[in-house]
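Researcher: Next entry in the queue.
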Amino acid sequence: MYGFRRARPAPAARNLAKTSIQIVLFWGTFLFVLPALVVALERSLGWPQFPSGVTRIAAVVLFAAASLLGQGTPLPYDAPRALVTGGPYAWIRNPMAAAGMAQGAAVALWYGSVAVLAYVVAGGVFWHAVVRPVEEVDLVQAFGEQYIRYRTRVPLWWPRRPRE
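Model: Structure for this entry, 164 residues:
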């Protein structure tokens, strides 16, 4: 439904290749190309940027930490065959989206760009309002009561200690 499909079993090398292509095309576009265009526009308008050694170090640390969160699929197009509820998924329902926004915030810190941060917030609002509802319908259809129980137990945005 809606372009989601269950990931097919595949050798590790194929999954690595597929994930690498998704990272380069999708995340490369949204975390590097588009923010660079936003910064170029910002500079052409004479808006100030505030990069410093401290913000750049914070950006690298935040980007690296956010990059370690994922255990799911990089894009819902290749939807999971099994419901993942452990690890970061026990604390927050979509750590992949949260990690993507944290990576975007890290890019904003790197550039010292308020406009890139606004772009990240707009992307989060879009994900929350458009992508998430469709993805959740798909998860209910795929995993039924198991996902419904998970959804009532685990918060969407604000991480909390897993309930036993």
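Model: The first strand starts at residue 5 and ends at 6.
Researcher: Noted, moving on.
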